[in-house]
Each structure stands twice: as structure tokens, then as C-alpha cells.
Design goal:
The complex is a heterodimer of chains A (382) and B (217). Chain A has 13 helices and twelve strands. With 382 residues, chain A is α+β, with helices and mostly antiparallel strands. Chain A folds into three domains: 42 residues; 49 residues, no CATH class; 211 residues, Alpha-Beta Plaits (2-Layer Sandwich), CATH 3.30.70.20. In chain A, the strands form five sheets. Chain A has a four-stranded mixed β-sheet. In chain A, a hairpin with a 5-residue loop joins strand 5 and strand 6. In chain A, helix 6 packs across helix 7. Chain B has 217 residues and is α+β, with helices and mostly antiparallel strands. Chain B has a four-stranded mixed β-sheet, with no helix packed on it. Chain B is elongated, with a radius of gyration of 31 Å. In chain B, 18% of the residues are buried. The chains are: A alpha+beta (382), B alpha+beta (217). Chains A and B meet through helix 8, strand 10 and helix 13 of A and helix 1, helix 2 and helix 8 of B. Bound molecules: iron/sulfur cluster (2 copies). The site of one iron/sulfur cluster has 14 residues of chain A, from helix 9.
Amino acid sequence: MNAKNPSHSMESCNENCANTADLSISTLIEGMLAENILSTPEKTERDLEVLMERNQEGDGWNEPTDQVIPSGYQQMVQQPVNRRTAVKIVAAGLLAGAGLFQTACSPFASAEAREKAQLNWEEYFKGNFRLMSDDEKEATVARLERLYELNTGKHLNISAANALPGVLYGYAFNISKCRGYMDCVRACINENNQDRKSGMQYITIHEHKKGQINFEHAEDDFYHEVPQEGHFYIGTQCFHCENPPCVNVCPVKATWKEPDGIVVVDYDWCIGCRYCEAACPYDARRFNWADPVIPEEEVNRNQHYLGNRLRKKGVMEKCTFCIQRTRTGKNPACVEACPTGARIFGNLLDPNSEIRHVLRTKKVFRLKEDLGTEPKFWYFMD
Amino acid sequence: MKHFTRYFLIVSAIFGLYGLVGCGNRDHADFAAITKHRSLPEQLEHITEPNTNGGVTIDALVAEITTVDAIGLPPDIQPFQVKDRLVELSKYPCLNCHSKSIEQLKIEQADSLRNAHWDVELNHAPEHVMKCGTCHNEENFDQLKTLNGEPVSFSHSYLICAQCHSQQHEDWMIGAHGKRLGGWAPPRVVNNCTHCHNQHQPAWGKRWPARVTQTVH
Ligand code: SF4
Ligand code: SF4
């Protein structure tokens, strides 16, 4: 495919493999070392600095960055290591990927199987999305689209669009308007390709008895005509905290806050440890205990790498403010679907946006504000 | 004691000086530190410059919607567009029938199985508060009218509602009430009141939720 760095594509393999019937891992590692894929300590340090800098919270929203971004390959081996450790890491990765590799190089496999294996191989060795250059982002979504096409014959449209400059998304929820209709929940499931089998949903509508707001006593699994007498409704989902505890605990930096304030998960980098789920004070994260099941005809084909693209078993997911929609100017699916107008979405950095008007003129509150998580999700009443 | 005071003065002078010099050098860093410890809403209050929203517009998404410019806006409200109501009125122009008096129409329709507005049931306010003629201009049925008798087009029927529901109207103008169409980016297009509320029976009813929740963790 259009891999940028020829040394991590199959080209080197094609040359080498042609005359090596049995794959020798040590030869490969030698080759990689020779072709300077492994990072130097200086480069490693700089890459780490980039990561650390991006982890700093609140230092100016959405300023464009022109930092040099290391390739995914460099990231994989970028721990501050000496050669020997580096070789070990690469060897471990190669062992795991050897199956793919052999198929890709096998002269007996069909062209399609070989292409698939090669794409899988390249996907296997890609880096963390946050550290990819724009070209690498395009390359990985192209690979994912092609893989899906090879597997199902259907076309996907996966975006890798970056955050819009000068935009910080915020959400307001009108408690007096919500009537428990749950059109938002249904729209969210369809939009975001959520697992139908486990009944996963990012949004929870809590039915509260009038006279108290107590989430312990709220009814989350109601099914009767709504609104029920003497009750009111509050929806929760990921609040895209400006100071997100879920991000801090991730041991592999698979989840982070984008420059437009959306907290995302790289489903291909997540190791499924569920630390973030435990750290979230708002029950916002959802885990795939099994491979998600979505009928092929119901798959939403307009996807984003960090949003509603199809997930797999063992990874974390959650609301992304419909990143695939909102970065094009649309509202999240829940906002669009709500018939009561209880849901308001917009750019917090635009003093004329609806959300800023609400923050200015209404009495607003956030949940568990004392934790200092700074949710970008406010509640208000008429 | 005397010594102590002297030492105290010297020490505080040194610290004072250090502080001054230090401030001079760290101005920027200190500001960053302060803003960092402000809450998000406090930080947002200081963001007042106009914003281009990353250059995104939803022109294409609202292109199909017939709109009118909202009128009667106070100067501090940004202009916006309202989805047109007039184009949706299937029986408009009303004068096709209402050129004759209501009494005349009643006589003419006496034999027909149902009258023209069989589906309209007025359940908006007590009878002594509202009747047809409170909102409809009985001199010219192609228009609505204010309580003062000023004519208002169906396209701007929100002005009629605003006479009583002034809080809702204020909220609607800033976007805290009502429904935005297309997306969050400009241009701002919103529903007219009558797109969500049946003006003759404005209360919302009960219904079944769109989905059964099964809490999974
Ligand atoms: S609501 Fe939970 S998952 Fe969402 S950003 Fe905050 S801590 Fe993270
Ligand atoms: S489950 Fe995934 S995203 Fe969450 S903390 Fe673990 S690795 Fe990070």
C-alpha cells in the first residue's frame, strides 16, 4: 500500500523473502537496525516530550502544532532503550506478527489473501493515532477501508479529520425539557455502531422521583409511558471532562483529550485494562466483553477513526460527541434526534454560540463539580 | 528585639526584591499558572473575541430548508433564520374560503359531512382568555394579528406566541428553547414555535420510549 516508509512495508520483505523459504527473524531485525528504523536515544527523548506536552491540560485550546511527529514504527520501539532491549521488543512483535508476515510473503497465497495479510501486517505495526502524521492517518484509514472491502465487499467511509481550530465543544442539557422519550439513545446506537447483542448504550436516561436528585434511587431501566406522573428525567453520557481522570490512568496512552476537547479512545491501541472505566466518576465508559454484533445493513458507514468505526472484543469505547459528525459542523446524533430541544451543543470558544448563551443566562450546574474534572456538559432548567 | 527588627527588615527587603525581579521574569508563566487554576466557566468568560468556528458552515445542510430572517430581535441578539411556516400551510391562502363571513360559510357547509377545520380543537387557554380571533385576523384571514390588532405573517407566528410566553421567546432567541436545524456551526436556523407545538393544543403528550434500556456494565 502507500506506506510512507518503505522499510516497514513489504518491499524489503519481497526482496528478502524471495530467497528465504523459512523466515529468519534475526535477519529481519538486522535489516531493521541497518535501515535505521529503531530510534536513537535523542529522537526518543524528543518524541516523549511531544507526548508529555500533549498531555498537559489547559495550555491553550486548539493551537495548531507544527511539531515533527515520529512515525508509528518509531513509536513502537521508542522507549529509551539500548539496542539489545530494542531488539527484544521488535522480536516479540515479530513473533506475534510472523503468521501474517508469512502469508504476506507466501508465493502460494492468492493475491487477495496476500494483500489482506500485508494490510493486516501494516495495521499491526502502526503507531498511536495521536502521534501519526496526517499522511499516516490517511494511510491507516485507507488500509481499514480496504480491509473491510476485502472482508465484506462493502465500502466504508472512514475519516481521520483533525480538530477544527478555535473550537472547544460543549453540551447543555435542559432538565425541564427531557421527557424520557429516549429518541436520543436510539439515534446514538444507530449512529455509533454500538453492539446490538449486549445492548450497549452510551446514554443513560435516569428517571428520578420529583423532589430529589439521587442517582442511587433513580430508575434507569424503565419501560412505561413517559413522562410518568411525579417524575423527571436526566440524561448522562461522557461529559468530555476538561480535566479527565480517565485519561490520566491509561497505562498505554490509548485515550486522550483532543484539541477540540473531545475525549477519544484509539481502539487499536487500547489493551482493555479498564482502568479508565474505573477512573471515570460518571459511568461513561463501555467495554466490549465480546465482539460487537451489528447487522451488516445497519452499519453506519460514515465513520471516524476516533469515533464510530467498528470496534472489536476487548476494547473500551464511549460517547465521542459524534466526532464523525461534529467535526463537519453537524450536531451529535442525540441532539438532532431529541424532539424536545432539551439538548444543546456548540462551540464554547464562540461567545455567540447557543451554548455560551445558555451558560451566561441560565442557572447551570454540572455533576460532581467538586471533583475538579471540569465536565464540558452542563445541566440547566427553564 | 532591636536586632530582630533590623534582621527582619533586611530579610524582607531581600525577599521583596527577589519577588519583584522574579515577577518581572515570570510574568507569562504566572499568568499561565493562574488561568490554569481557574475553573473552565471562569476561563470561558474571558473569551469574548468573535470566533470563526474553524471556518465550518452548514450551508449545504440547511440549503433545502425554506427560511425567513427572524424579526423583532433586540440589538444584542445575533440575527438568525427561522424555518418558514407559511410554505407548509396546505390550505393557504385562507382567503380562498374566508372571503365570505364565517356565518355564510357555516350555512354553506351545513350539509357537508365534516367542516374544513374538523381536525382543529382549541385547547390552549380557558375560553374567556382565548378564542380564534385572539390570534387570527378576522378582517384578513391570510394573517395573524397581535393583541393590539397589528397584522403578523404566519411566517413570523413566534411573535404571536411571544406576547404571553415572553420567557420562552427570550430563551428561543438565544437558543435555550427550541430546536436548531442542520448543526452547531453557522448559519443558525431554528424551528418556528409551531414546528414543535400544535398551536391549538400546545401541550406535549405521553408516549412510549423509543427503546428499552438494559443496563449493562
Ligand atoms: S465523563 Fe468519564 S469518560 Fe468522559 S471524560 Fe469525564 S472521566 Fe473521562
Ligand atoms: S481500557 Fe484501554 S483506554 Fe482504558 S485505560 Fe485501559 S488501555 Fe487505556
